[in-house]
## 1
Amino acid sequence: MSLSFAPLLGAANLPPQKLASAMSEATPSEQLAMGWTAARQGDYTRARALLARLRADPQLARSGNEVQANAYELEAWLTLEAKRTDEALALLRKAQALTPDRTYPRDTRSPFYATAGRPADAARALCEALAWNGDDASARFEPVLINHLAQALRDDNAALQPLLQALFDTQWTDEGQDPQYRWQRLAEMQADAGQTEALQRTVARIDQPMPLLHLGIDRRFDAAMAARATPLSAEAALPAYVALLRGNVQAHPNQLPHVTALLTALLLAGDNAGVLDASAPFADATPASHAHDDEALMKMAWLLNLRAEAQRRLGQTDAAVATLRHAMSFGPGGHAAVGQQLNLALWLADDRQPAQALALIEELHAISDYGRSVADLVRVVAYQQLGDAAAVARATAAIAGRKGNDRDPYLHALLAQGRQDDAAAEIIRRLRSVDTRQNMLHDAQQYGDIPRWPLAAEREVLLQLVLQRADVRDAIAAVGTRGQHALYPFE
């Protein structure tokens, strides 16, 4: 979140005697800058001491409303850090009362609620802030907040849809990129709610390949896609999209979101050599270069994961495994990056290295329910090779007990065991649910030839056999289409 005052650099790090002298000579706004600097550095004790000294300074009462409001805002952040959310929100209201035309106090309620584990309240506060003033939405609400709320509310459409609609209406972007996968999710909810006009407006804006593919294979969007001024397929959209992303990277070569977006599009286009070229400047990066920035660490881990996938597709398997192991080192707090840890474990299991795969997932840090399902799929594949039927059954049951798209790996767990009838039933179940239909339709498409690890290739053969069953074909036809696409997705 942007602050109202630029920090007085270095002041908050002065020794106590020099700091006291600096404080006595500083204006209230400069004293506040010292407090903000200390808070940003995580030195909350010093920040509270600086704020207390400012509160005792008679100049503060004679300062303008914005300075006094900023003091309340600093106090609010420090109060939130002490986990007193309601008191922190009350302090923001005081700041708002002093400066009713500023967006900052209204905007800040959303991350406060999110930090307190109240995502629905955070989404509501964000919507209220944008309804009051929809200008500069991208600058005011950072992607890390939006990503957190979208994940936390993935099963709460009543809270998620207004959030996405507010972001769509104010043309929010994710670090300069139009997050059309978000608008695709918005379109799903609009279609299920029968909001025809809103759905047409959402679909009309979508021009990126994968969102177009998802809309084109789902019958819920047939009318809205037909109403587009200019028909556009995923394949037709891909060259212009790649060109746009190349331009973004040329303009911002060190901004990781731009680079990873380009790498993903190049993989989709089957340009694996292009992925290696575009990712080469980052191949030797180290976690130390992104210390104390968990978000940047996770972005680097994903960038290297994309590079590893391109190497794997090119047959450079040793290099791919080495790159993915390197990507694991970019986890927050000194832990392994859990997404890359799981991906490598599945690679090893599918390459008939079950013991190594199981050893890799013995310790998993900060794992989501979907991640737990992937870990259980690794166990299914690994224990199947080791002949441990009881362990296979336990892992399969664990995946089956999860909900929504967190249960997606269940299909591959069934295929790994050769349970084709159960796999067909699972496909039909997923197609009939509006919550899982999109992912299942995506998985049912026929894409370009992508090299696979040995056991993954065996599962793919079984999947194609199951998809050709009459009952499965009928279930697909009832809700969507299945076709051939000159695309090479990786998600």
Note: The chain is about 70% helix and 0% strand.
## 2
Amino acid sequence: MTAGIPSRENPVTHVADLPGRAARYAEWPSWADPAVVAALRDRGVAAPWAHQAEAASHAYEGRHVVISTGTASGKSLAYQLPVLSRLAASGKAKASGRGARGEAPVVTALYLSPTKALGADQLRSVSSLDIPGVRAAAFDGDTPMAERDWVRAHANWVFTNPDMLHRGILSAHGRWATFFRRLSCVVVDECHSYRGVFGSHVALLLRRLRRVAEHYGASPVFVLASATTASPASFASRLTGLPCVAVTEDASPRGARTVALWEPPLLEELTGENGAPVRRPAGTEASRILADLVLEGARSLAFIRSRRGAELAALGARRILSEVDPALAETVAAYRSGYLPEERRALEAALLSGRLLGVATTNALELGVDIAGLDAVVLAGYPGTLASFWQQAGRAGRSGDSALVVFVARDDPLDTYLVHHPAALLERPVETAVLDPANPYVLAPQLACAVAELPLTVPELEMFGGAAATEVLAELAERKMLRRRSSGWYWTSRERPHAEVGIRGTGGEQIAVVEADSGRMLGTVDPGSACFAVHPGAVYLHQGSSYVVDELDLETGLALVHAENPDWTTTPREVVDISVLSTQEKQDFGGVSVCLGEVAVTSQVVGYLRRRPSGEVLDHTPLDLPEQSLHTRAVWYTISAELLGLEEPRRRASNRSATAARSVGEEPAATGSNAGPHSADEKPAATGSNAGPHSAGEKLAGSPATAARSTGEDPAATDQSTPTRSAGEPVGARSAVVRGSAADGEVGTGGHRVGTESAGPVGTGEESLANGRGPVHEGGRAPGSAGLVPARVPGALHAAEHAAIGLLPLFATCDRWDIGGVSTAWHEDTGEATVFVHDGHPGGAGFAERGYAAIVPWLAATREAIVSCECPTGCPSCVQSPKCGNGNDPLDKAGAVAVLETVLGALRQHGS
């Protein structure tokens, strides 16, 4: 893969050889049904591994258990063995009539997976064993209506997903009465994927499942399977509400793996915004590596961060291969969610048969088809968590053979940090998954569904959060959705609430993408990302074909497109406002305050840029799309004027300038970024920044600069040193910020530049950076202060915010698009310079809390990522964002380091 690359340009920054491991076996348990053991032996399983036997015995003996071991460690056998043994014995009892006497009761089982691909794969695995008496069947969105009645009446092991359990099973549990009455086991596969808002919904969904089962007299055992994760027993207990035993010692064999960390080279012929150096895109690099692997005959997967990226990577690999041998181009394809069911099934069959050698995929295959014999995996960008990294890496060498894993860094602060700090990727323990079932935005709709299923009694409140549930129920009763009686709470409407509750945080029914000329449905997009992915003018890719969106109708859930193959991509731009609603925790550190609380964020996609593949911006097109509001949780830190190095008289003068600016309708300066909800594998970009004042209704033009000049003020002074306000205040008294959002799913921050166009670049830090390794501050810097002049403060905070958003996923189990942020040189709610980082989901998902708890290591890693970058004044690998709506200006790399050093110094000096 590196053949022909000069040694001085070698993109490989680190190579680690991970040793193999021998297997440890156990005897088949005495309780295992002989027919099941015989079928497994025929498949080649001579004996179970020790961890499989241990977990299976816990489940068979009635203990709730979570098995948390590595990828390809055979976790499926740990639940298949006890479930199939129970079902086989049940089938024999039913055939002989003994079940009526209780000697071997007739039982059923339920299997839950986060993706349809994984559920279909596990169903194939169980069905292929052909155990007498086992009637396994799928019940999901792809199940034909004609088959659903048969599944309800006859299947004794139902394979489904949380979405169908929520909408199609619990909502109509009366039709499933026989199944629930016999329910003995619930399998929750890949449970580590249930995190954030989705995980919080699933936690409450499992409590609803328990209630319904208990209503019919059943008390099923829960068996959870998880990738290696921290504190699996604690997490499983939070997810199910039940005490769980953990099995964590992996006894499976593992082939040796070589892990290569790969940083794409800088492109000498191209520069990015403001002349910054740029690297070859990770998706492009992964596409080339995938083609090289296919040429060598290696069966390979390339994990790409977005649907668009997966399509482009497959196209690129096919193009390279077609130049060598056109037949090889047919051995590469893309795989992602959003395909129609028959398309997914055809691709899965081609994967299993080996007809496909290379597949560019989203995380839809991270948990999906169990493909044996893969030789290599390429990861184009950090997948957001260490658990996902090792899960994706583990797809290679799944038969115990040696394998290659290549991690290709995106031009992103976190990825750059990881390829230069390999221990943070390869030696750090896996994170604990974060979920918050008490989130009122999650709890309220889940309680409404629970009450609609069965009246809720006071003793049942504890499983739903006790006091938090009581408070939410009172609010629902006040809104006349429920009725409170002495015996409990009752649903008052004839309509069930389930259809209106999206458990993945997507906010409603999917948007159908339809080709206008033919009426053919190409795929679907979740409504939370529709304004980003299929806004009018957006480029939409489907199975290698390009389409341009003509119309988006959110009310009817329809996006109309036409076929076109443009040589440009689209990048949305978004206006964002933010305000503090409440401060729940606050710590003061001598001029620096760190806070955790609730904020209000208002956003609106207001336009999009057309870009060539080189990054060149062709034009900006305004859009008129509806505004979206978000009440969520945030962590923020403030810095006093003294620690920034600003003189008090200068700040008072700035305040007077701000008053003058507001008198002509302007808003104070702010920068920011924000994220919105997303589907299981398409993560819409959603962050933004703004460097200057404008009203909520303004577009991206630089009119505020003109307004500032009309007052006779100095544009640079007004724009760069005025105090600022943020969101949620009345129009005319708040600061709106603009964020950029990637059509390809990658995430950055954005905004727009105001009031400095005639003054040239501001606050780049070029004059203050020595060899790109650290700041050289202005003369007269006070001890412990950042030593910044007022004009540099917005750029310094903006750069620090960009980098901090990029590094938080290192400390919280989140993806970068799960969070957003805003930075401002003066915020009305705090009275000081402030940097916010907030959750991108209503009510929060627990990520801000993680940032608050890890504030010192988080900001220290942020500083290290900036200082370690080789660029002189800022680039996408440190402080720039490719989606920044204000063109990454102002950004002050040296100023960001100075700010972070000052904040960290105060935290360490005054912290306990």
Note: Residues 75-96 form the longest helix (22 residues).
